[in-house]
């Protein structure tokens, strides 16, 4: 057999292998996926195509209805796929999908929060973001992508980000002090406890608002990456130091933990009795309406000279693993989280973009509140998404109640908290 014939046979085999590989698409992309072979060496495959007759339902909160319907109209014009909105917020969608997905009545695409991914993966209701993974990683904040990655698999399509920072009334204080010494000094001149007048307020008993202090000192929840339930660093030496500092702040906020909640903070802030209100972008709209000269600033630095590290959340669209139209679902999730549509969602609803170009756009950066929250987000810690996170909140609340209300020893309180967390995790409570 000649060398020329050998080469011809080998070439034929290679071509057949390439065609089979190209037609198959990436692994795990779902039944019915179609992808055209590459036109030539070095060229990318053509776009994924939606299934014939595909019709999608999308779950999200009511305030997103107009945004989704506008995106759905553009998607219909481009791909001839109908998309219908149904109201179910990101805070409830994952729990609902665990039931509705296997029953065949769940939405094809639904908005959710990254810390619920573990629950969704365990229940088998989430389809990985595989086809668009490279694009998703390349165009979004690294922190957001990391938050949506569970056991090294990317599941979500980043939609928006959020964290906490310090709202302030410019008529009461010029700016947020750079450090907590400045906050305490201001409180000593501003506070009037009999008149319910305070310099600063946060939800002292809520672990979401406690973590910025402890994390800034070096505490961590589940390992350095938030994925190891056996490694709880909430009672290490740094955590104890942070808890002692929190305890010292009782002198400028002498209220019980049960007397501080979101509604009380907002009421005092909007009535000019609170100068600084630690909260998140979800309050921006209502506070703008009530506070004439509203500002927002980064967290003050801690006494150890380091910045505080608040928890952060990433909202994303997820694809139901039981959808009849995996191609169309992935395409819509990718479409509505593009740079263009994240800017549009910011314009319509104030959603802070996860997309780096959208976040850097003039539209977003020219907004003095959004730009600060995005800056604070880059110095935040995504809430762990493993199921064990559910065992953090109640023990943390109990620990802070004893530390703040009863002046208990911080180390003893945190030791007891971690002991309780470990016991709950082991028993699956």
Helix content: 40-55%
Given helix and strand content, the structural type is: alpha/beta
Strand content: 5-15%
Low-confidence runs of at least 5 consecutive residues: 1-45
What's the CATH class of the largest domain, please? Alpha Beta
CATH superfamily annotation of the largest domain: Periplasmic binding protein-like II
Radius of gyration: 25 Å
Mean of all residue-level pLDDT scores: 90
- The helix count comes to 18
What shape does the CA trace take?
globular
Which fold does the CATH topology of the largest domain refer to? D-Maltodextrin-Binding Protein, domain 2
Known CATH architecture of the largest domain: 3-Layer(aba) Sandwich
Our count of domains comes out at: 2
Subcellular location: Cell membrane
Keywords: Cell membrane, Lipoprotein, Membrane, Signal, Sugar transport, Transport
Pfam family, one: SBP_bac_8
Family: Belongs to the bacterial solute-binding protein 1 family.
Compact overview of the structure:
It is found in: Cell membrane. This protein is of the alpha/beta class and 429 residues long.
Question: Can you put this structure into words, describing what you see?
Answer:
By secondary structure, this protein is α/β, with parallel strands linked by helices. It has 18 helices and 13 strands. The strands form three sheets. Strands 1, 2, 3, 4, 7, 12 and 13 form a seven-stranded mixed beta sheet that branches. Strand 1 (55-60), helix 2 and strand 2 form a beta-alpha-beta unit. Helix 3 (90-103) packs parallel to helix 4 and helix 17 (393-405) runs antiparallel to helix 18 (410-427). Its main location: membrane. This is Maltodextrin-binding protein. It comes from Paenibacillus bovis. One of its GO terms (biological process) is maltodextrin transmembrane transport.
């Amino acid at each position: 057999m000649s060398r020329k014939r050998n080469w011809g046979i080998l070439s034929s085999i290679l071509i057949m292998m390439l065609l089979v590989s190209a037609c198959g698409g990436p692994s795990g992309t779902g039944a019915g996926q179609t992808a055209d072979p590459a036109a030539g060496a070095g060229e990318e495959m053509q776009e994924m195509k939606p299934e014939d007759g595909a019709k999608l339902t999308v779950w999200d909160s009511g305030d997103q209805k107009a945004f989704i319907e506008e995106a759905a109209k553009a998607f219909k014009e481009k791909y001839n796929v109908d998309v219908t909105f149904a109201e179910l917020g990101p805070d409830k969608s994952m729990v609902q999908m665990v039931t509705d997905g296997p029953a065949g009545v769940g939405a094809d695409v639904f908005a959710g929060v990254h810390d619920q991914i573990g629950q969704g993966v365990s229940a088998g209701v989430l389809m990985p973001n595989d086809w668009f993974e490279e694009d998703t990683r390349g165009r979004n904040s690294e922190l957001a992508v990391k938050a949506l990655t569970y056991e090294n698999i990317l599941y979500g399509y980043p939609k928006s980000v959020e964290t906490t920072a310090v709202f302030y009334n410019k008529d009461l204080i010029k700016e947020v002090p750079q450090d907590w010494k400045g906050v305490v000094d201001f409180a000593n001149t501003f506070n009037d406890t009999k008149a319910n007048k305070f310099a600063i307020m946060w939800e002292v008993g809520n672990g979401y608002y406690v973590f910025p202090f402890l994390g800034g000192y070096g505490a961590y929840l589940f390992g350095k990456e938030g994925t190891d339930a056996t490694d709880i660093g909430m009672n290490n030496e740094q955590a104890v130091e942070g808890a002692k500092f929190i305890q010292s702040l009782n002198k400028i906020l002498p209220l019980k933990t049960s007397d501080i909640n979101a509604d009380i903070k907002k009421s005092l802030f909007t009535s000019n009795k609170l100068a600084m209100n630690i909260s998140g972008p979800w309050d921006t709209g209502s506070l703008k309406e009530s506070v004439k000269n509203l500002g927002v600033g980064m967290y003050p630095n801690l006494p150890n000279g380091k910045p505080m590290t608040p928890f952060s959340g990433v909202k994303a669209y997820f694809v139901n693993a039981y959808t009849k139209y995996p191609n169309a679902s992935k395409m819509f999730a990718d479409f509505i989280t593009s740079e263009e549509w994240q800017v549009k969602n910011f314009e319509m609803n104030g959603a802070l973009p996860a997309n780096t170009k959208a976040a850097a756009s003039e539209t977003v950066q020219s907004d003095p509140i959004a730009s600060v929250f995005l800056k604070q987000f880059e110095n935040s810690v995504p809430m762990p998404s493993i199921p064990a996170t559910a065992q953090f909140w109640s023990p943390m609340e109990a620990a802070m109640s004893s530390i703040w209300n009863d002046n208990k020893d911080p180390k003893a309180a945190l030791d007891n908290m971690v002991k309780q967390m470990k016991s709950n995790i082991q028993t699956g409570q």
